[in-house]
Write a structure and sequence with these properties.
With 533 residues, this protein is an alpha+beta fold. It is built from 14 helices and 25 strands. The strands form five sheets. Strands 1, 2, 8, 9, 10, 11, 17 and 18 form an eight-stranded mixed sheet that branches. Helix 1 runs parallel beside helix 4, helix 1 packs parallel to helix 7 and helix 7 runs antiparallel to helix 8. The longest helix is centred in the middle third of the chain and has 26 residues. The protein is globular. The chain starts with a strand and ends in a 12-residue tail after the last helix. The C terminus is likely disordered.
């Protein structure tokens, strides 16, 4: 008879998104079990870019200091023509809104090792490796418990684990996606690219950012990953040789615009191909991200071409958005409808990011006719207009749409802070210098520039939130200036540090709580959860 195991949450897939979700749940006291088919960290080249929002998420799971030691801040993204002349430049600041460089380069296996080490330190988290999930099933009405059937390496015996919720972080070929009946929406981009990671001490021509070569016949991407490590990505024919002596010769020809391997002074011996792999870059979006208590995150929910470095970033944002809501449902009996806001908030953002990535890919590979050349010229001209490149960079993380957890008021002039992130400056607290999130903690928080009203205090008490006056959090003026620009006296921050509600300047109080109070407080479930058999 097969073994039966019960856990509050089962996470399928222990890549960066799955492990981050487990660590975030642990911060809220929710135990989880991760099931991973690989015995070790996947070694092939994949994600290399983290933005400042992602660095903030890594801070929340406790690995920011270690990550900072291996990450390399980058200056931004350049679009170059086939002669390597700059068409457009999207610069990124070393001091982003979230308190970190807006772009950091890293090697994904390094990040995964840090996440796995953090996982091992959390008693709430279990990792079972060498486990292949066979099926995911739940009652027809979408209630818990959900049954996950799996097999261990070398065994043909089915085992089961029952969970209150299942997170499918199992990648592009997701079994979980099939289990909830989700299908892909094709966003019309599919190309085969070769990704090559190289180690060399030769001088390499680099501006310490990412180069995208906009050439219809030979598009490419180049970036520096570390002190002596570099990545090239090329769109090549399927039969293009990159293995053996002939392949190495071809590769050296491809990288000639960046590095001279032919001169007698340098020679060509110090040029080590660490890893290479062929990938099909696709743009896709799942039509649904949830059925009952089963959810899709990361590549199981969306596939983003890598041209703006947002594939992994988008998945980690999924984890941040969902975990605090799931914890509130599991631990504080919040209404299951709270979980509906996960897809409502994250899917439009993922679509936006995919479209930006496809647009860059289109600029790189968009045809060989005269019209394509004109379009690239127009891109360059548009990007020379003051403020255009800054706007494009900022729009990597647009405001969340209005909804029960984003209270955007009508008839207000100017840009509302609702749905945007609170900045994270260094603040002086209890005699020490700390990042803001370390002071606010993991729950809701009220941040105010005026004396708190009785209603502010009442809202905070109802949510278990702290009330924080900016004068009690001395910083460099960032918080007060941010509130003033947003014409807000106070804001209500969610656990993910998104602004849920504002007190517009001079209006006195938050909006009516009727829209969100039932979701966050009422234990109205679709049906009573049944115990595992």
């Amino acid at each position: 008879m097969s073994a039966v195991v019960q856990r509050p949450v089962v996470i399928i897939g222990a890549g960066p998104v799955g492990v981050t979700a487990a660590l975030l749940l642990a911060r809220h006291g929710v135990p989880s079990l991760l099931l991973e088919r690989h015995r070790d960290i996947y070694p092939l080249p994949r994600a290399v870019v983290a933005d400042d929002e992602i660095r903030r998420i890594l801070q929340s799971v406790g690995i920011q200091e270690e990550f900072a030691a291996l990450a390399r801040p980058a200056r931004g993204l350049r679009l170059l023509n086939s002669q390597h002349r700059v068409i457009a430049e999207f610069t990124r600041s070393p001091h982003g809104h979230h308190g970190y460089p807006q772009t950091s380069m890293f090697d994904q296996p390094d990040l995964e090792r840090l996440l796995r080490a953090a996982l091992a330190r959390r008693p709430e988290c279990e990792l079972w490796s060498g486990v292949e999930v066979m099926s995911v099933s739940q009652p027809a009405d979408g209630t818990a418990p959900v049954r996950v059937t799996f097999r261990r390496d070398g065994s043909d015996e089915d085992e089961h684990v029952w969970a209150e919720a299942v997170l499918g972080c199992d990648g592009a070929g997701s079994l979980t996606r099939d289990a909830i009946g989700a299908v892909w929406e094709d966003l019309h981009f599919e190309e085969n690219w070769r990704v090559i990671d190289v180690r060399t001490s030769h001088p390499v021509r680099t501006w310490e950012g990412v180069d995208q070569i906009c050439c219809p016949t030979q598009p490419a991407t180049f970036m520096r990953l570390g002190e002596d490590r570099y990545r090239w990505e090329f769109r090549l024919a399927d039969d293009a040789p990159l293995d053996g002596p002939a392949g190495l010769k071809h590769l050296r020809e491809l990288v000639t615009p960046w590095i001279d391997l032919s001169s007698a002074a340098h020679g060509g011996d110090d040029f080590e191909v660490i890893r290479q792999a062929q990938y099909t870059f696709r743009a896709r979006l799942a039509d649904r991200w949830r059925r009952g208590r089963v959810f899709l995150l990361g590549d199981a929910a969306h596939l983003t071409p890598p041209f703006i470095g947002q594939g992994l970033c988008t998945g980690l944002r999924d984890a941040r958005n969902l975990t605090w809501k799931l914890a509130r449902v599991l631990q504080q009996s919040a209404d299951d409808r709270l979980l509906d806001t996960y897809q409502q908030e994250r899917k439009p953002h993922a679509r936006h990011v995919i479209r930006l990535a496809v647009a860059v890919g289109w600029a790189m590979t968009g045809g060989q006719d005269r019209g394509a050349a004109i379009r690239r010229t127009l891109v360059g001209a548009a990007c020379r207009i003051p403020g255009v490149t800054a706007t494009v960079s900022r729009d990597l993380s647009p405001a969340l749409p209005p909804g029960p957890l984003v209270r955007r008021r009508p008839r207000l002039t100017g840009r509302s802070l609702a749905g945007t992130f609170c900045p994270q400056p260094w603040v002086l607290y209890d005699g020490r210098r700390e990042r803001l999130d370390n002071i606010l903690g993991d729950s809701f928080a009220v941040l105010t520039a005026v004396p708190p009203t009785a209603r502010m205090t009442g809202v905070a008490t109802a949510l278990g939130a702290s009330v924080n006056h900016v004068d009690d959090l001395p910083d460099d003026g960032t918080l007060a200036a941010w509130l003033a620009r947003g014409r807000a006296d106070a804001v209500l921050l969610r656990p993910d540090r998104v602004v849920m509600d504002t007190v517009p300047t001079g209006t006195g109080d938050f909006t009516d709580t009727a829209a969100w109070a039932p979701l966050l407080h009422t234990a109205r479930r679709p049906a009573e959860a049944r115990p595992a058999p």
